[in-house]
């Protein structure tokens, strides 16, 4: 059972930089793809991070997304104490954040544009990042991206896919929320532009929110609901 409740002034941390999995920063842009990396690291996430229908007690409205960064779960609230739970990867130390944002844009097979600050930092380490990497199987943003906005402005944080499923359940990103490609595709079809996203994380800047994960909804699981 998971339980979370946080009370603080509503707001969010200033964006740090766009997300990219570490392997992307650790290789030149000329490397063909991450298919080789996938072959070398076939590890899958722990079973608890598989997509599940669960009993979730919350007063948030259906259609809301709640991200529990401590436990690495994203919930899509369905109402009547029901939700779909997905495993996620979140920001590594120093890149965690919290806040209430909205999905302001969505894109299939998005291109990746690492910020100049990230490119300069990685170049100092001998890692040359591209200015733009077009969407595809080796792209750090995976199959789908949902861009998170605050007050009508892009926060630079995203909910996106990854072709490194072994990073789900870990603190690996630069602040973005990563999901397995099949999961981000599933969420992408359900969460529309304007969807409220509550990120529960360091600083408690998401304001007051309560939710209680009471575990897998066995009846729905058995019946395929």
UniProtKB/TrEMBL annotation:
The keyword tRNA-binding does not apply. InterPro entries: LD-transpeptidase, LD_TPept_cat_dom, Transpep_catalytic_dom. The keyword Transferase applies. Keywords: Cell shape, Cell wall biogenesis/degradation, Glycosyltransferase, Hydrolase, Peptidoglycan synthesis, Signal, Transferase. Residues 1-20 form the signal peptide. Belongs to the YkuD family. This is L,D-transpeptidase. It comes from Ciceribacter ferrooxidans.
């Amino acid at each position: 059972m998971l339980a979370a409740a946080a009370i603080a002034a509503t707001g969010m941390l200033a964006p740090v930089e766009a997300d990219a999995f570490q392997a992307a920063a650790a290789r030149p842009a000329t490397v063909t793809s991450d298919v080789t990396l996938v072959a070398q690291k076939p590890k899958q996430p722990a079973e608890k991070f598989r997509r599940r229908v669960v009993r979730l007690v919350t007063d948030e409205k259906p259609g809301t997304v709640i991200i529990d960064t401590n436990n690495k779960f994203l919930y899509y609230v369905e109402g009547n104490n029901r939700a779909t739970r997905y495993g996620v990867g979140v920001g590594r130390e120093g890149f965690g954040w919290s806040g209430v944002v909205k999905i302001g844009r969505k894109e299939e097979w998005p291109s990746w544009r690492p910020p100049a600050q990230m490119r300069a930092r990685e170049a100092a380490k001998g890692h040359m990042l591209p200015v733009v990497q077009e969407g595809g199987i080796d792209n750090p943003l995976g199959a789908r991206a949902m861009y998170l906005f605050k007050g009508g402005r892009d926060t630079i944080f995203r909910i996106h896919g990854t072709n490194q499923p072994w990073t789900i359940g870990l603190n690996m990103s630069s602040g973005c929320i990563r999901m397995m490609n099949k999961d981000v595709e599933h969420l992408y079809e359900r969460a529309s532009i304007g969807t409220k996203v509550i990120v529960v994380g360091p600083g408690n800047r998401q304001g007051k929110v309560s939710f209680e994960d009471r575990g897998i909804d066995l009846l729905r699981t058995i019946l395929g609901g």
